[in-house]
Write a structure and sequence with these properties.
- The protein has a single domain (35-204, 234-340, 350-435), classed as Alkaline Phosphatase, subunit A (3-Layer(aba) Sandwich), CATH 3.40.720.10.
- The strands form five sheets. Strands 1, 2, 3, 4, 5, 6, 11, 14, 15, 16 and 17 form an eleven-stranded mixed beta sheet that branches. Strands 18-19-20-21 form a four-stranded antiparallel beta sheet, with helices on one face. It has a two-stranded antiparallel sheet with strand order 7-10.
- It starts with a helix and ends in a 9-residue tail after the last helix.
- Helices cover 24% and strands 18% of the residues.
- The model is unreliable at 6-21 (pLDDT under 50).
- It is globular, with a radius of gyration of 22 Å.
- By secondary structure, the protein is of the alpha+beta class.
Length: 514
């Protein structure tokens, strides 16, 4: 038992000591960088050759991004499904610290953010960043009931009772974003409509019911309300154009003001969530059939094209070298079965066990690439590096805080660990020692609200009652084939891992302030 306690103290000590070593920030070193956060939907590590040589699609813009930056081999979403992860990225908190432990999924519900919880938009807006959000939210925000003047209550409501003259009272336009052009539930559920700064785009009198089915190239997965003309195959082109327009306005505003105001562009893509309905073209670039494989990979290729267009526009303004670019996914891939030995077919989960919604590695291991600079060794992020550091997507918040020289409040981003020193290439950079991850809580996924606790090479899975269920050594067994839960040799370590899990679960802050 003493040996295991020592193991734990070494892990935690490494994390806390690392926080005491401060690096020069981007703000103190000179010009504050822009931030392009590119968030794809349901992309697994097997969907790109950066992680899996058998991936059936080339993503040249994304692959070039990896070459001039750093690749995280062990990046994890905070949850194996989108809504809770999306809150964690924007808040720096584990999902259960928001209003709902498994995230807020419906647009008419109050925001997943609790009152007083800041977002990434708030963090960067403090320094004068021009902040914009595009695409899928899955964060709630609320719709106003014209009969009560308050946010709609309950699960079911009549769209005729919605007061569309009022913006979403807790939408992202109230969470630090200057401009929001969003799909409250993406392309997979109602409302099938764009919202701009919390207001529906178009004439509310034209709101209609979309029945489940196929409409030309567009597919409606679930009956619900929306605006005429909604087309799932055109969402990517519409969002791309809106983001490019934002960049044009931003750069024109900087030129008129004579000052280089930085931007945060948070691009939350519909790719590659179902329904897989690629457009024929994206602003002149052929998308349908471009992967040579499937609609699923065509849509991932579409995101790669969008990335290239955004980077080209930033480069044309002379700002690419001063832009931190982050590409990642909200959860693991859309594949729940492993390849047989010798099989080289495309596998979205990269041959890890499980996929989206599940606690197995395939459910929450995600691609994560960051680049900043001109791709030379003098770049703020030195190019061509990979790291096996354990990282959670909620760590983006503290990393950007340190990058911009900001201190976090005691109740802000309480589960976020800064990787700024690692990005900059410092040899003594601290890394995260442990972390929690959760599955979907819907029983049909076979998960029943399981969570996992990671520390070093070890992964403990607990059930709904917070009792040990599975135990793996991911260094020896990355495919989670050999369950050690009943191995008496690891009994003490399992007890200690459970104590670590409970310590985080009951904490008010799981990552110490520097």
């Amino acid at each position: 038992m003493k040996k295991n306690n020592l193991f734990r103290r070494m892990l935690m000590g490494g994390m806390l000591i690392g926080w005491l070593i401060l690096a020069p920030t981007a703000q103190s070193a000179g010009k504050t960088p822009n931030v392009l956060f590119f968030f794809v939907d349901d992309m697994g590590i097997g969907d790109t050759r950066i992680y899996d040589e058998h991936a059936a699609v080339r993503l040249p813009n994304y692959e070039q991004l990896a070459e001039r930056g750093i690749v995280f081999d062990y990046a994890h979403a905070a949850a194996a499904v989108c809504a809770p992860t999306r809150y964690s990225v924007l808040s720096g908190n584990y999902p259960w610290r928001g209003r709902q432990p498994n995230g807020t999924w419906m647009a008419h519900q109050p925001s997943q953010f609790r009152p007083g919880q800041p977002s990434l938009g708030d963090l960067l807006k403090r320094l004068g960043y021009h902040t914009a959000f595009f695409g899928k939210e899955h964060l709630g925000g609320g719709l106003i009931d014209r009969n009560t003047g308050r946010i709609v209550e309950g699960w079911h409501y009549d769209v005729a009772d919605i007061d569309f003259s009022q913006p979403m009272p807790e939408g992202l336009q109230t969470k630090g974003f200057d401009y929001v052009y969003s799909l409250p539930q993406g392309i997979q559920g109602p409302p099938y409509a764009w919202f701009e700064n919390g207001l529906i785009v178009g004439d509310p009198a034209e709101v209609k019911t979309w029945e489940e089915g196929q409409y030309g190239r567009s597919v409606i997965k679930r009956t619900g309300w929306g605006m005429p003309g909604f087309d799932t195959s055109e969402i990517g082109p519409q969002m791309t154009q809106a983001a490019l327009d934002f960049l044009d306005r931003h750069f024109a505003g900087n030129e008129a003001a004579g000052e280089p105001r930085p931007f945060l562009l948070y691009y939350s893509s519909q790719s590659c969530h179902t329904p897989h309905t690629p457009p024929e073209e994206l602003l002149g670039v052929r998308i349908e059939g471009a992967s040579g494989h499937s609609d699923h990979l065509d849509i991932i290729y579409e995101a790669n094209v969008t990335l290239g267009m955004l980077l080209d526009r930033i480069e044309a303004a002379g700002e690419l070298e001063n832009t931190l670019v982050i590409w990642t996914s909200d959860n693991g891939g859309l594949n729940w079965t492993r390849r047989e030995e010798g099989d080289t077919s495309h596998d979205s989960s990269g041959n890890l066990r499980g996929g989206k919604a599940q606690i197995w590695e395939g459910g929450h291991r995600v691609p994560l690439v960051m680049a900043w600079g001109d791709g030379s060794e003098s770049s703020p992020i030195p190019p061509g590096r990979r790291t096996d550091a354990l990282i959670g997507l909620q760590d983006v918040y503290a990393t950007l805080a340190e990058m911009t020289g900001q201190s976090l409040a005691e109740n802000e981003a309480v589960d976020s660990f800064s990787y700024y020193r690692l990005l900059r290439g410092y040899e003594d950079a601290p890394t995260r020692a442990d972390m929690l991850i959760q599955s979907n809580d819907e029983p049909e996924w076979g998960q029943d609200n399981t969570r996992a606790y990671r520390a070093g090479p070890w992964k403990l899975v607990v059930n709904r009652n917070h009792q040990p269920r599975n135990f793996f050594n991911l260094v020896d067994d990355p495919g989670e084939r050999n369950d050690l839960i009943h191995d008496p040799e690891h009994e003490d370590l399992i007890d200690e891992m459970l104590a670590g899990y409970n310590a985080i679960r009951h904490s008010r802050r799981s990552v110490a302030l520097p």
